[in-house]
Structures are given as C-alpha cells and as structure tokens.
C-alpha cells in the first residue's frame, strides 16, 4: 500500500506485504524468515547446571621458585611478557592462555553457562587474611588478600604468593600482563595533558608529575555470549517524491514537498556471537553516579586483547597494584545483555539497507543459548590528581593508559576563568562575523 504524506512521515501503517525480496540483502546478513525461529533454542538452566572450569588446578600457595636458581624474586618482564627471575635473569614463557584453559574458542558451540573457577560467587565471610608457613624457614607469614596476593617473609626475605582461588575475588582466572612500559605510559600522559595544557588549572600545571603513574590490574568479568537475536518493526521505502501547490490560510499558494513510501513489516533474526565483552567487576568502578570517577574513563580505553591473557600467577602482579573483584556474574549479566542488545541493533543496520527511509524497531528479543565467563585482571596505567577546590571540596582526576595498546583518556582540572575568557572571545568573534554578514561586508 502506498501512503501519501508530507514530511515528517506519520507513523507508518502496517502492511500485509512481505518484506523486500531477500536478494536486496547481502548474503552474510543471515536473514531467516520468521518460520525458522525455534523457541526450543532458548537456553534453560535446567538443561544442565553451570560448567565450572578449574583454572587454579595445581596452583601452589607459598614459595614459587625460579627453576634455575631457586630465588623467589620473580616479576613480569614487560618487554617480553614473560616472568623473569630478578636474581639470575632466567625467563620462562610457558603460561597457559585462555584457549589452553578451555575458556576460549567457538562461541557458536557454547551451550548453557560455562565459567572459570575464578568467577565463583564471592562469599562475604571469607577470611581475607591468610596465614602461610614459609617453607624456607618455617615462619608464619600473613597475606592480606584485600590488598594483595603476595607477602615477604620477614625472617628469610622470601616472597610468598597466593595462587589458589579464595572465594573473595582476589584471585581471578587469568591476568593480561602489562606490555606498555612505564616510560611510554608517562610519555602518553604527558602528551595527553600537553594538548590540554592551555586550559589546565594553574595548580595542576605546577604539580603535574606523570612519573608517579601507577600500574594497576583492574578486575573485569569477560563474557562470550552465544545469542539468537530477533528484531521486529516497520520499515519504509521511498517510492517517489514530488512538489504540490498548497493554498495556505492566508490565501497564498505555497510549494509543499510530498513523499510516497511503502511500509513493510520487517523481522530480522540472526545468530549474534559476542566475543570478550569486558565489564568492570569492581562495584566502585561500576558506580556511574560517581561523577568524574575512573569508570567512564577506563571504559574509553577499551578494548583489551583478552585472548592473550594467561593463567593467573601472583608474580605477574609484582611491582603493580591490583583492585579486587567484588561483584558476581549475576550482578553483571544484566548490563552484559543490555550491551549485547545494542550490538544486535548495530549489526542489524547492515541488514535493512533496502529501507531507505529507515526502520523503526518495536520489539527486540535476545535469547542466550550459551555464555562463558572469565574473571580477569586487565592492565591500566593510572595517573591520579587530587584537586582541592577553593570551597574545600575535592575531586579526583585521572588519566588512564591502556597497559597493552597505549590508548589514553582522562580528565584534567580546568582553569575556569581562562575557559570562560576564551569562550567569550569565540562568541565575540562569531558576533562580529555575523555583523559583517548582515551589512554585506
Ligand atoms: Zn633465578
Ligand atoms: Zn621465611
């Protein structure tokens, strides 16, 4: 049916006609008619409980020794991504990656819930302070897992590590080691602030010292989702446009542009595989109401190459700090599915190009066939600046650098007077320009 209407279009009328021929779509659009929709594909938890993949199998707490010299001073060599003995410089590179742990691979084959043991729900009563017997000297050494997973024996100076997972979120499945060295992070922060230097607050400029940047492992829950996405709505195709004379209430004839469009019921159903969706698992970072906090900034330095994350080993954290996970998979599943729906709508754009006047989606469904969860520490260089305002209130500013890609984002305290002065000048220039136009300069 053809609808005659002036712009903007009135709500399109439902049409009995089928959607435009399939030939109008790209083959990879994977459009399937509604009949092909199989509700049985909907995942039901009863079909099989969650599958837990143990990622701390064989992990040992206590002394982790260099295979060559037996020293316990082990840390990440950022240049190679390997662990290195700080004593004899021996390096090893046999860490299991996600795929070796059975936590990566074909998303289309995912059924039900699969998760690394590091994603286990946090048990609030878990004792955060663990005591280990040092196997070198026999002393009891305390590790406060709220603040780290290593401690030095105060008697023999050996380093003790926590590698077995405790249900308090301190030990994830995997860690993505830093690859960007500190000096490069400092250079990125300097460059970022340099571009904003003119507007930056005077005190900030005086106190700016990017060398104090800290390497932090941020806790994330990473999801692979095997979903079936369904969108239904109405799409319009322009048939023709033309101009008509219309008599106005003042008795004058005016030109009015008219558009004829065909309206179709449109359904798009397709498999949507979401790979490595990263969601903060620190409640503080996910609190989007906290203005000017790190959460938004850190989201802007995504993505991370999570597929290169390796099995957790406390020694990767040596010399860095880490923030502990304090939220469970059930807390972040909702936000994850919301993001998946956004991705689905974006993906669908390529499947509705035939509707040159657009498609309005009225319904969206997302069935989760399978999901896989991994708890990961991801590397971020953080430069923080505590701004104390004249009224006594304070605000934390951050510049964050992705510890893998060098992507940089942040906030800088602004010199309001200078910003105001500049915007007034811009407006004055615009006003003068407008004046010139008016007098036909
Ligand atoms: Zn060694
Ligand atoms: Zn000892």
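^ structure tokens above, recovered residues below v
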């Amino acid at each position: 049916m053809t609808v005659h209407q002036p712009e903007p279009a009135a709500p399109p009328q439902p049409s009995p006609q089928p959607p435009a021929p399939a030939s109008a779509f790209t083959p990879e659009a994977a459009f399937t008619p509604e009949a092909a929709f199989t509700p049985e594909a909907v995942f039901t938890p009863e079909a099989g409980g969650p599958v837990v993949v143990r990622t701390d199998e064989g992990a040992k707490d206590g002394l982790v020794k260099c295979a060559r010299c037996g020293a316990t001073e082990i840390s990440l060599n950022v240049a190679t991504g390997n662990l290195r003995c700080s004593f004899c410089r021996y390096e090893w590179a046999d860490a299991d990656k996600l795929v070796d742990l059975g936590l990566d691979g074909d998303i289309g084959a995912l059924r039900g819930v699969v998760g690394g043991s590091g994603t286990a729900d946090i048990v609030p009563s878990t004792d955060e302070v663990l005591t280990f017997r040092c196997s070198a000297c026999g002393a009891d050494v305390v590790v406060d897992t709220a603040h780290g997973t290593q401690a030095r024996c105060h008697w023999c100076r050996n380093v003790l590590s926590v590698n077995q997972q405790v249900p308090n979120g301190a030990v994830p499945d995997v860690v993505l080691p830093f690859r960007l060295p500190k000096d490069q992070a400092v250079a990125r922060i300097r460059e970022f602030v340099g571009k904003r230097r003119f507007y930056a607050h005077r005190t900030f400029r005086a106190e700016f010292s990017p060398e104090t940047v800290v390497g932090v492992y941020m806790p994330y829950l990473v999801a692979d989702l095997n979903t079936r996405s369904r969108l239904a709505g109405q799409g319009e195709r322009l048939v023709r446009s033309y101009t008509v004379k219309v008599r106005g209430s003042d008795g004058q004839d005016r030109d009015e542009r008219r558009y004829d469009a065909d309206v179709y019921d449109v359904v798009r159903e397709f498999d949507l595989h979401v790979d490595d969706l990263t969601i903060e698992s620190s409640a503080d970072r996910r609190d989007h109401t906290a203005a000017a906090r790190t959460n938004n900034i850190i989201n802007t330095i995504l993505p991370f190459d999570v597929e290169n994350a390796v099995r957790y080993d406390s020694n990767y954290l040596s010399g860095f700090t880490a923030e502990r996970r304090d939220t469970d998979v059930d807390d972040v599943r909702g936000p994850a599915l919301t993001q998946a729906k956004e991705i689905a709508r974006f993906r669908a754009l390529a499947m509705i190009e035939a509707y040159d006047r657009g498609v309005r989606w009225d319904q969206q469904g997302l069935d989760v066939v399978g999901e896989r969860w991994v708890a990961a520490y991801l590397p971020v260089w953080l430069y923080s600046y505590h701004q104390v305002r004249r009224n006594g209130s304070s605000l934390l500013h951050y510049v964050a650098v992705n510890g893998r890609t060098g992507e940089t984002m942040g906030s800088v305290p602004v010199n309001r007077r200078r910003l105001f002065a500049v915007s007034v000048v811009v407006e004055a220039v615009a006003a003068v320009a407008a004046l010139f136009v008016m007098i036909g300069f």
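The two ends are 53 Å apart (CA to CA).
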